[in-house]
Design goal:
- The chain is α+β, with helices and mostly antiparallel strands.
- The protein has a single domain (5-129), classed as Roll (Thiol Ester Dehydrase, Chain A).
- 25% of the residues lie in helices and 43% in strands.
- Strands 1, 2, 3, 4, 5 and 6 form a six-stranded antiparallel β-sheet that branches.
- It is elongated, with a radius of gyration of 16 Å.
- The mean pLDDT is 97.
Length: 130
Amino acid sequence: MEYIFEYEFEVRDYECDVQGIVNNANYQHYMEHTRHRYIQTLNLDFMTLTNEGVILVVAKAELQYKKPLKSNDKFVCRLNVQKEGIRYVFYEDIYRLSDNQLCTKGKFEIVSVINGRLGVSEKIDKALFG
């Protein structure tokens, strides 16, 4: 897959379970943070969008766990985005930096709720796809 953005992290001790590996829910947090950072690079601000009545909502999340991350592992989350109808589909993959192993694959379908109704935001479309 071709990626358009990436963001680096380091696993913190408290993100690991009793088995010493990252708890499954944290991978989704990493990916959400990466999406938010990417959206910020497009000069979109969540507070401004919210004040304009535009809310971005995760409608569907799929994760495939391939290899575990452990405490102090450095890793990168890479993403790409496509538009499918009214959905923005973010493909996000996490790679451990020490060996470039694919650890997790994610697919997130995001929709816009505009003034309480499902819709398309021209502002977001323009920012994401020009």
